[in-house]
């Protein structure tokens, strides 16, 4: 009986996040190991399963937070498609501005390697967005962003205590 309870508990703790939302562990492991090997060149780095799970979950939460903020920015601009500039603005808003310039460089490199692809931010849609911005006032922050900022400031206050 106790073994059955342990199996149920293990099952509940393992499936907190649906499979569709999980990041591929092999890719996360590779990224973590590559970065750690750059920092510590003297030995081989191994990552425990719990650590790998923590990296995966942290990355998933960051992606959700960044995409929700970028979505709010996009909606405030009366658009339905998130573009790279929305992501850059979201990074700045969630106080990760130091990522913007390396990401811009990666995006430019990607665009040079894939010249046939057209992004939503290029061409006539960009001109339309510019005209819209010139005609209307800056939008107020959405409720979702206000709520996230409140939660974030409460978390910062709790950390200070």
Automatic annotation (TrEMBL):
Subcellular location: Nucleus
Keywords: Nucleus
InterPro entries per the UniProt record, alphabetical: CBFA_NFYB_domain, DNA_Pol-Epsilon_Subunit, Histone-fold
Annotated GO MF terms: chromatin DNA binding; protein heterodimerization activity
Domain of life the protein comes from: Eukaryota
GO biological-process terms attached to the record: DNA damage response; heterochromatin formation; leading strand elongation
Keyword Nucleus: yes
Residues annotated as domain Transcription factor CBF/NF-Y/archaeal histone: 22-91
GO cellular component, one term: epsilon DNA polymerase complex
Broad class of the protein's primary localization: nucleus
Residue span of region Disordered: 112-161
Keyword Nucleus: yes
Protein name as annotated: Transcription factor CBF/NF-Y/archaeal histone domain-containing protein
Species whose genome carries this gene: Sesamum alatum
Lineage start: Eukaryota, Viridiplantae, Streptophyta, Embryophyta, Tracheophyta
């Amino acid at each position: 009986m106790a073994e059955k309870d342990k199996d149920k508990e293990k099952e509940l703790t393992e499936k907190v996040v649906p499979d569709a939302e999980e990041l591929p562990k092999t890719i996360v492991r590779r990224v973590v190991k590559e970065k750690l090997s750059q920092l510590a060149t003297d030995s081989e780095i191994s990552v425990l399963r719990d650590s790998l799970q923590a990296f995966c979950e942290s990355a998933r939460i960051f992606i959700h937070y960044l995409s929700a903020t970028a979505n709010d920015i996009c909606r405030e601009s009366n658009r339905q498609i998130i573009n790279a500039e929305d992501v850059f603005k979201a990074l700045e808003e969630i106080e990760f501005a130091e990522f913007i310039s390396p990401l811009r460089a990666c995006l430019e490199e990607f665009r040079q390697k894939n010249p046939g692809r057209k992004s939503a931010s290029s061409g006539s849609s960009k001109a339309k967005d510019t005209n819209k911005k010139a005609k209307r006032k800056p939008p107020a922050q959405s409720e979702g962003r206000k709520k996230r900022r409140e939660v974030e400031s409460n978390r910062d206050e709790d950390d200070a205590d």
